[in-house]
């Protein structure tokens, strides 16, 4: 069985975008103006009233940024922030799967540039992620393809499986979010991790496995407590 993991709030305490943007603003690579309506969209997400095109709208404010700058911020973000907010239970689970000869894959609406350091740290060989569009080494303000959010993530995973002659029933999928219910409902083994109240209700109704990840690196090992 292949184990596919959502990233934000599942493997890590908050979202990769949160940590990345925090680092980018501190480094003055992105202005507060370029954040657009992200704070409002986050509130909508928490209350289950998200506009599913919010990622596309957010990216439109980021046109003209060098890809090398994004990669540099992503690396610094991982070293200074993200690695200290990875749930230890999640890391141990992924490493156990790998030690036993299984495959762990990341599937996230976050952008590949942002999660590449996490992928490398965990020894994950493949990720299914959203992609920023670049032209002449700079962001265009558009997404390459679709943002892998909600039903789009399910479609992307199905496309990934087709190339490998694997069925959804051969998957175990871990997620925290109600937006991933389309994929959770389709796989052989759905697992709700730190589920929001909407996903918890669905998981209880359908008798899905529920896991609570809480353990973070000790305070003495964490350089920045965000």
Word description of this protein:
Strands 3-2-1-6-7-8 form a 6-stranded parallel β-sheet. The protein is of the alpha/beta class and 226 residues long. Mean pLDDT is 87; it is low at 222-226. A hairpin with a 2-residue loop joins strand 4 and strand 5. The N and C termini lie far apart (35 Å). It has one domain (2-221): 3-Layer(aba) Sandwich (Rossmann fold), CATH 3.40.50. The chain is globular. Helices cover 39% and strands 18% of the residues. It has helices at 16-26, 38-46, 54-59, 67-80, 88-99, 112-122, 151-162, 181-184, 197-206, and strands spanning 2-5, 103-111, 127-130, 132-135, 138-143, 171-175, 189-193, 209-211.
TL;DR?
With 226 residues, this protein is α/β, with parallel strands linked by helices. It is built from 9 helices and 8 strands. Strand 6 (171-175), helix 8 (181-184) and strand 7 form a beta-alpha-beta unit.
């Amino acid at each position: 069985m292949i184990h596919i993991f959502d990233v934000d709030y599942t493997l890590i305490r908050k979202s990769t975008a949160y940590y990345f943007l925090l680092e980018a603003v501190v480094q003055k690579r992105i202005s507060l103006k370029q954040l657009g309506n992200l704070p409002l969209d986050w509130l909508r997400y928490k209350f289950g009233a998200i506009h599913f095109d919010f990622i596309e709208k957010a990216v439109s404010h980021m046109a003209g940024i060098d890809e090398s700058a994004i990669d540099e911020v992503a690396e610094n973000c991982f070293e200074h922030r993200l690695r200290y907010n990875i749930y230890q239970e999640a890391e141990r689970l992924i490493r156990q799967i790998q030690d036993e000869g299984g495959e762990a894959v990341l599937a996230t609406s976050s952008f590949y540039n942002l999660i590449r350091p996490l992928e490398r740290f965990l020894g994950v060989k493949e990720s299914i992620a959203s992609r920023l569009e670049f032209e002449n080494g700079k962001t265009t303000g558009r997404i390459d393809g679709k943002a892998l959010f909600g039903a789009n993530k399910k479609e992307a995973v199905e496309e990934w499986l087709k190339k490998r002659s694997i069925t959804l029933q051969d998957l175990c999928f871990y997620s925290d979010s109600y937006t991933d219910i389309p994929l959770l409902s389709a796989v052989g083994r759905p697992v709700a991790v730190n589920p929001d109240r909407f996903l918890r209700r669905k998981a209880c109704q359908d008798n899905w496995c529920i896991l609570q990840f809480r353990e973070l690196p000790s305070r003495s090992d964490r350089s920045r407590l965000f």
